[in-house]
Design goal:
It is a single chain. By secondary structure, the protein is of the alpha+beta class. The protein has one domain: Gcn5-related N-acetyltransferase (GNAT) (Aminopeptidase), CATH 3.40.630. The chain is 22% helix and 36% strand. It is built from four helices and ten strands; from the N terminus they run βααβββαβαβββββ. Strands 1, 2, 3, 4, 5, 6, 7, 8, 9 and 10 form a ten-stranded mixed sheet that branches. A hairpin with a 2-residue loop joins strand 7 and strand 8. The radius of gyration is 16 Å and the shape is globular. Bound molecules: coenzyme A.
Length: 179
């Protein structure tokens, strides 16, 4: 297998189409809005299997997190984690997640976040469910968030701090308006 990373604005239209097809198949619903909310500077992690087909994907977008009273943190936010249905269970999903951690570390980020309906899977890789209040920062306004899809999970890249999972977590707003 081969893992590659590409910024969104460097993806060919062919790979964009392949990513949307892969995500639609894995999630069982159209994924056409992906490129509307990841912006142009997202970093896509893509895995091709030995036959050359696109088999697994995720995308990292930089956001800022404010946790409790801490200073702002550069966060790698993960979206569109998907493995082609007939290629699942082969370790590809874990491999793209591990690569996304390396990408975030290399960009100097200290934390990662996502929202999910399958916390058990991420939990098995060390991700932790956030229990505190959530908010989005749009300009100077803080908008409380109560309708997250699934649960929010975080992964610390910097072992020098411990996370209090019940504090308030605020993230930069993004175009689709969701968490
Ligand atoms: C979740 C997903 C990306 C995993 O991809 P994958 O390539 O099969 O993952 P891996 O092969 O690395 O890991 C498979 C392991 O995760 C487990 N797993 C898969 N889905 C799971 C789930 N919903 N809950 C708990 N464990 C799960 C499998 O049982 C397997 O366990 P094993 O290693 O003990 O056999 C893939 O199932 C998928 O695309 N699902 C649909 C889209 C989705 O839900 N994405 C995540 C949204 S946040």
């Amino acid at each position: 297998m081969k893992i590659s990373t590409f910024r969104t604005d460097k993806l060919s239209s062919e790979i964009r189409g392949d990513i949307l097809e892969l995500c639609s198949l894995a999630f069982g619903s159209p994924f056409d809005e992906l490129f509307d909310f990841v912006g142009t500077s997202g970093v896509h992690v893509i895995l091709h299997d030995n036959s050359g087909g696109l088999s697994s994907h995720c995308v990292v977008t930089e956001r800022t997190f404010w946790i409790g009273d801490r200073s702002p943190m550069r966060a790698g936010y993960i979206d569109a984690v998907a493995t082609r249905p007939n290629k699942q269970g082969l370790g590809y999903g874990r491999a793209v997640m591990a690569e996304s951690c390396r990408v975030c570390k290399s960009m100097g980020m200290n934390i990662m976040g996502l929202s999910t309906f399958i916390p058990e899977w991420y939990g098995s890789m060390g991700w932790r469910v956030w229990r505190g209040e959530l908010g989005l920062k749009k300009g100077s306004e803080i908008i409380p968030v109560s309708d997250v899809d699934g649960v929010v999970m975080l992964y610390g890249l910097d072992n020098s701090f411990s996370l209090n999972l019940s504090q308030r977590l605020i993230a930069t707003w993004r175009p689709n308006g969701g968490w």
